[in-house]
Amino acid sequence: MSPEIEWVPCGTGTFTMLQGHPEWSPSIAEPGPACTLCSADTVVRVSDLENFPAYPAPTSMEPNGWAIVGLAANFWVNASTQIGEGLLLGQPAQVMFTPIAYHWDYGDGATATTATGGASWEALGLTEFSTTPTSHQYTIKGTYPVVLTVTYHADYSFGDQGWRPVDGTVTVPSVPFTVVAAKESTVLVAEDCLANPHGPGC
């Protein structure tokens, strides 16, 4: 551009209007790159979500860390919807994870898959040792590692294009925790209180 020509921006909207010499016709600047992946036909798979990890949900149980053989121990998880922002297929996007299933491994060979994350006896309006959808009865005394795996459905959104489903599901294991199961007649003895100071009678 020669020094005698001065260009100044004018106009509004997506395109910037540039005005030069009064005898010249105005020109329009090139638009920015379009979102090539914002089409409803775009297929996003779970394998594309490497920049969007879903995080383990905190688990709880009652009684706290122990169980009585033959009676229900209650388990639950505080899993909720997670939303993250980042780059998806090279484009700025959001991904939303929604829990849809819960797989419990109680450590004694028993497992259960539930549609609910469960809740405490008090929240459910139940008495202690009541059976719940996520509770479990141990039949043999021992120490058991418990692991929960939460299955999430994922949706993605490019800008303000609305949410669209991701192909596949995401599974996230919780941090394992230990349950000490003992017979009712021995739960109150000193050695169990040493193993679990929060046990009954301790």
Assembly classification: single chain
* Largest sheet entry: 7 strands, mixed
Order of helices and strands: EEEEEEEEEHEEEEH
Structural class by SSE content: mainly beta
Written account of the structure:
It contains 2 helices and 13 strands. Mean pLDDT is 82; it is low at 5-20. A hairpin with a 5-residue loop joins β8 (91-105) and β9. The protein starts with 7 loop residues before the first strand and ends in a 7-residue tail after the last helix. With 202 residues, the protein is mostly beta strands. Helix content is 5%, strand content 40%. The longest helix has 6 residues, at 190-195. Strands 5, 7, 8, 9, 11, 12 and 13 form a 7-stranded mixed sheet that branches. Strands 1-2-3 form a 3-stranded antiparallel sheet, with no helix packed on it.
Can you summarize this structure?
The chain is mostly beta strands and 202 residues long.
